[in-house]
Amino acid sequence: MNLKKYLIPTLLCLGINLGQAQDKDAYVQQLTGTDLSIDMVAIPEGTFMLGSPEGEHGRNADEGPQRNMDIPSFWMSQYEITWELYNLFLQRSIDQIAEEHKGSDVNLEVDAVTGATIPYVDMSLGMGTESGLPIGNVTQLAASKFCEWLSAKTGHFYRLPTEAEWEYAARAGSQDPYFFEENNLEEYAWYSQNSDDTYHPVGEKKPNPWGLYDIYGNVAEWTLDQYQPDAYQNKDAYFQPTQKEYPVVVRGGSFKDDATELRSASRQASKPLWKQRDPQFPRSKWWHTDAPFVGFRIVRPKTPPPPEDYHLYWIHKN
Questions:
Q1: Among 157, 135, 148, which residue's Cα sits nearest to residue 316?
Q2: Which of 49, 84, 264, 278 is deepest in the core (most CB within 10 A)?
Q3: Is residue 132 within 8 Å of 86, Cβ to Cβ?
């Protein structure tokens, strides 16, 4: 099975670079039966340098060697997924309401998607689940199953971003540590210096040049990739599919992190410690008890994969 066929198609226009104007086909994914929707930003195809150069302040060894990457166009959610949106999947209250404008990319019955367990304690750890607050304490599996459920509901193929897609979208054309001047970080991100040790409603800070809010800070974001410290040594590996629960790549840093962990190239690895206080045995596949600082955003590729490859993106093996 050739992942590159679907993840790195040959660029249609040779010589394209990050200076090219962004696609203008952003859209809003409506969810019939609710007043909620998901704003999807168009991310243009292009090339960029994955990772950080030696000498970048805060750089870790797992951020290199740098690699030149071709990225096809895709859509990414403008905001991190909120508790309100995630609760639609958790409660499954709109499953039987037909979507008014259902797509044809995915032919999957919504009742075939495994549902998450209802949380047994306050998974926000007192930080709140009200309007506009980002979901936290969900596992990569739970985030991935939300994508599968949303795909079945809407007929459009949604998934988590690969870490290469995430970094490309976060950089928005920049090769600097951030997409802005470093001394302006508080204008763009909630992090350890200004968050009061809690997450905040999505969209309160300035977006990046491609219209993505909270791409740095607030909550860190799941990717599809299994974490490997030497992943960039393999020049053929654009995407490391998840084969086991830990460690998985988390990107963007959170409200608990220092500035260096919010850099575009910074990589974090998930840890079993994030379930330290889970009283269940076996421990929950759906929830963490000690990672309210990890949430997610979603992407929709312009070219969806064939059904036989869905398991690579919806994490059926965890």
A1: 148
A2: 264
A3: no
- Give yes or no for residue 183 having a pLDDT over 90: no
CA distance 124 to 207: 25
Task: Calculate Rg over the CA atoms of the chain.
Answer: 18
pTM attached to this predicted model: 0.92
Spatial separation of the C-alpha atoms in residues 214 and 39, rounded to whole Å: 14
Q: Which residues in 256-291 are b (16+ Cβ under 10 Å) and which e? A: bbebebbbbbbbbebeeebbeebeeeebbbbbbbbb
**What is the predicted pLDDT for the residue at 19?**
30
The two structure tokens encoding residue 304: 């969806």
Question: Which pairing describes strands 27-30 and 37-43: parallel, antiparallel, or unpaired?
Answer: antiparallel
Do the beta carbons of residue 254 and residue 219 sit within 8 Å? yes
**What is the residue type of 19?**
G
Give, in degrees to the nearest 5, the angle at Cα 221 between 176 and 108. 125
CA distance 139 to 145: 10
- Tell me the per-residue pLDDT of 48-93, one tens digit each, with 9 for 90 and over: 999 999 999 999 999 999 999 999 999 999 999 999 999 999 999 9
CB atoms within 10 A of CB 16: 14
